Amino acid sequence: MSSALSPQLPSKPSANDPLVQLSVHSLPPADKARQSLDQRTRMGRIKMLAVWAVCAAPVVASYFTYYVLRPQGRTNYGELIQPTRPVPADGQLVLTDLQGQRVQPNALKGQWLLVSVAGGACDPACEQHLYQQRQLREILGKDKDRIDRVWLVTDQAPVRPSLLPAMQQAWTLRADPAAVARWLQPEPGQPLSAHFYLVDPRGDWMMRFPAQADPVRIKKDLLRLMKANESWDKAGR
């Protein structure tokens, strides 16, 4: 009687009892952890390169369209600069406006630039050059606001007041001639003032037009370039 009412003690757990079976998970080997870290590093680099490619693609695509996919027999008038030359950093190229205020070279970025180089006295050949520069921008019509005129004055001679009205909508900047020559380069035997230089929106010098250039042929080159990059290059900075 008493044995029937006494509490039943649990039996000793068996090793096969599912309630007492434990799973032991080991840490991953060191070589696998290192492999995982290397894989994440590679993925980060790939993403960084992809971002860079997206930023550079529009300019590269416009160059490719203009110089590679052009119709058979079509030739550009301006000489393509390969490799392109980026605008020097501040300190390497010191720019000031006519009031003597510093202008950062990076301020020139963000727009196509048609550049002339001459001294402040501006002889008749220089004056004709500046006139052609203004006309070339105007005849681009709806695309004229995608290109700026730049006159780099390579001495301290005063600019004649008669030239100032025509330069109101242009950059007129003083710069050391040696610094300019380290960025832009004329044809052999020609002075810097003999050419128009074309700079892309990244600040890279990418084309030089011949001395005593034919404005009609320059216009054709500019129009083709504007057409090639119209999908991404918008007017203004």
SSE blueprint and pairings:
Blueprint: H1 2-5, H2 30-67, E1 79-86, E2 95-96, E3 102-103, E4 112-118, H3 124-138, E5 147-153, E6 171-175, H4 177-183, E7 197-199, E8 204-208, H5 215-228
Parallel strand pairs: 4-5, 5-6
Antiparallel strand pairs: 1-8, 2-3, 2-6, 4-7, 7-8
Keywords: Membrane, Transmembrane, Transmembrane helix
Protein name: Cytochrome oxidase Cu insertion factor (SCO1/SenC/PrrC family)
Transmembrane segments: 49-69
What would your notes on this structure say?
The protein is α+β, with helices and mostly antiparallel strands. The protein has a domain at 73-228: Glutaredoxin (3-Layer(aba) Sandwich), CATH 3.40.30. Helices cover 33% and strands 16% of the residues. It has helices at residues 2-5, 30-67, 124-138, 177-183, 215-228, and strands at 79-86, 95-96, 102-103, 112-118, 147-153, 171-175, 197-199, 204-208. The chain has an 8-stranded mixed β-sheet. β4 (112-118), α3 (124-138) and β5 (147-153) form a beta-alpha-beta unit. The relative contact order is 0.16. Mean pLDDT is 82; it is low at 1-7. This is Cytochrome oxidase Cu insertion factor (SCO1/SenC/PrrC family). Keywords: Membrane, Transmembrane, Transmembrane helix. InterPro entries: Thioredoxin-like_sf (IPR036249).
